[in-house]
Write a structure and sequence with these properties.
By secondary structure, this protein is mainly beta. It is 9% helix and 23% strand.
């Protein structure tokens, strides 16, 4: 992701947003000449949607499992079009995705936001069970029904040895856009990334033409070992400089979230979970 700056404020003031089906370098389907003044002001606007990061994952015990998401920017972010999943099939949401046993795709509820320079926690189990483990309530709970289910298969749980965790954005067009992802712990191939490169989706939009996903590098790796019960894996660095900025990837800004060097940006040793604590390392 690009560094956050005054461009972010300018983009938000003008209502700049990600257009999933616009090829990099195009106008996102607008008529030629539209918004010329905005383009001249800022030929490469920063989308605030791209700034959200997965910052902590706890895989065990079941009652304490959670995913933490941080907003390192100085602006509140609406979560209306954001989804969270541990399934490699997450990218099939525009054409109806299915998931394996205990996997999930859930959506943040209407009106949900994440405040400036703050974090939210999504518990897999009930809020009561989460609080019994962590002595604090989660922001949302999948088992508690405060996340909207999109595709589930049994009780949502994270695999203890390792699991894909992905935060993505979808506004109802042909493709979803990766916001951030991590292979937490040491997931098996069945719990990891599926290759969406070149797969065509035709979402529930006005046309009947599909759009192909760009090629994913898929160089992101697991963390070599699974954390034991009661500890978590944590992001220690922002993405900047640690992923391929190809300009034609499947990320919110056209970057390639599957190319992040998580050996640099995530911890190699697991420590006591700290849900609700904003990691200073990702703040600007």
């Amino acid at each position: 992701m690009r560094p956050l700056s005054l461009l972010l404020l300018a983009a938000c003031a003008r209502g700049t947003s990600f257009t999933p089906d616009a090829a990099p370098g195009t106008d996102g389907g607008r008529e030629a000449g539209d918004d010329k003044d905005a383009a001249q002001e800022d030929s490469s606007p920063v989308s605030i949607a791209s700034a959200l990061l997965v910052t902590e994952v706890m895989l065990a015990p079941t009652t304490g499992e959670f995913i933490e998401i941080a907003n390192p920017t100085a602006l509140s972010v609406a979560l209306e079009h954001y989804y969270l999943s541990d399934s490699g099939n997450y990218f099939r949401v525009p054409n109806t995705a299915t998931v394996d046993q205990t996997d999930f795709i859930v959506k943040f509820p209407a009106g949900a936001t994440i405040g400036a320079r703050s974090v939210i926690t999504v518990a897999l189990d009930t809020a009561a069970n989460f609080q019994a483990v962590h002595a604090m309530p989660p922001t949302y709970s999948i088992a508690g029904g405060t996340m909207t289910p999109v595709a589930t298969n049994g009780t949502a749980q994270l695999t203890n040895n390792g699991e894909l965790v992905v935060l993505f954005y979808w506004d109802g067009a042909d493709r979803v856009a990766d916001s951030d992802l991590v292979l937490a712990g040491a997931p098996t191939a069945g719990n990891g990334l599926n290759d969406k490169s070149g797969i065509v989706m035709d979402g529930p939009d006005a046309d009947t033409m599909g759009t192909a996903y760009a090629t994913d590098a898929r160089t992101i790796t697991g963390q070599g070992g699974a954390p034991s019960s009661g500890v978590s894996t944590k992001r220690t660095q922002p993405e900047l400089g640690n992923e391929v900025q190809v300009g034609a990837g499947n990320g919110v800004e056209g970057d390639d979230e599957t190319s992040e060097n998580t050996a640099v940006t995530w911890d190699a040793t697991y420590t006591t979970a700290t849900p609700g604590v904003v990691p200073a390392s990702v703040l600007p």
